[in-house]
Amino acid sequence: MKAFLGIARAKFLLLPVTLVAVGAAAAAYDGTFHLIHTLLALVGLTAMHVSVNSLNEYSDFRRGIDLATERTPFSGGSGTLPSGALPARAALYLGLGAALLGLAIGVYFFSRFGSALLPIFVLGAVSVLGYSDLLARAYVGEIFAGLGLGTLPVLGTAIVQGGELGIAAVAASFPPFFMTFNLLLLNEFADEKADQEGGRRNLVRLLGRAGAARAYVILGWAVPVCLILSIAWGALPALSLLACLPSLALIAPTRWALTSPLEPVPLPALGANVIWNLATNTVLAISLGVALILK
């Protein structure tokens, strides 16, 4: 069980919980909420996250990336397959099985809400099944990570509440894109050498370490800017300004990015990157819920 949890990267599965919370809270603020559909969305998104993690472990082991990477608590894979705890095919089977579970839930929602979900499902499926062996090798892995584990889950969760998409849900879907984009981007610095040897093409290779570090800073601080603009336009309640506070965690990775991007990313900066992501989603969801109660 421990080995399978390692392949699934279980300690990172809080992300889908926070994304579903944001989508459901935004939809509730817009006027619709369905508890059972929220729970189904959570199961489906978690299954898809397990799938992409497992298939990524399988691909990286098969291509030798996991054998060359320098692991940190936040990057470099779980080390499960290189340790011999499970055969590589176990990761493949887990990834495909989890994808089938996510697909089954998606089919149910599609039967209920129709074409409104089609582009979300198609892009989501491409993000999961095509990430390791296609997207991560074509300089677009970060974009599809931001979509597949950022914007799309928030929009999809909001739609399955009642079939409609309100302005709060649309506004709330932008910050998760930038955060998940950056969650992957910062980890790529630690994996740079192994990724290059394994044929991956990402922004660190495209822009160089200094250029990719500047992109990280710009996209990171775009999150509080998006929140402030959404509040100013009336798309989000004023209480959602509290969701800007976790961006203070960006100070550590920003300092590294602007002063020493050629050096390894410090572990505290990698940790702050994760905390920023999860905390911002959580505070945004809570702020929407509280604002709804205070309406």
Descriptive overview:
The mean pLDDT is 92. 72% of the residues lie in helices and 0% in strands. It is globular. Helix 12 packs across helix 13. The chain contains 13 helices and no strands. The chain starts with a helix and ends with a helix. The protein is mostly helical. It has a single domain, classed as Farnesyl Diphosphate Synthase.
Task: State the main characteristics.
295 residues; mainly alpha; Farnesyl Diphosphate Synthase; 13 helices; 0% strand
The mean pLDDT is 92
The fold-level CATH name is Farnesyl Diphosphate Synthase
Tell me the helix content: over 70%
What's the number of domains?
1
Distance linking N and C termini: 46 Å
CATH class: Mainly Alpha
Number of strands: 0
Query: Quick one: overall form?
Result: globular
**Major sheet characteristics:** none
Beta-strand proportion: under 5%
CATH second-level architecture: Orthogonal Bundle
Radius of gyration over C-alpha positions, nearest whole angstrom: 19 Å
Low-pLDDT parts are none
- Given the structure, what is the number of helices? 13
Order of helices and strands: HHHHHHHHHHHHH
Helices and strands: which structural class? mainly alpha
A few lines on this structure:
The chain has 295 residues and is mostly helical. It has helices at 2-7, 14-30, 35-62, 65-68, 88-113, 118-129, 141-162, 167-172, 174-190, 192-197, 203-232, 251-259, 267-294.
Topology of helices and strands:
Elements: H1 2-7, H2 14-30, H3 35-62, H4 65-68, H5 88-113, H6 118-129, H7 141-162, H8 167-172, H9 174-190, H10 192-197, H11 203-232, H12 251-259, H13 267-294
Helix pairs in contact: 2-3, 2-7, 2-13, 3-5, 3-7, 6-7, 7-9, 9-11, 9-13, 11-12, 12-13
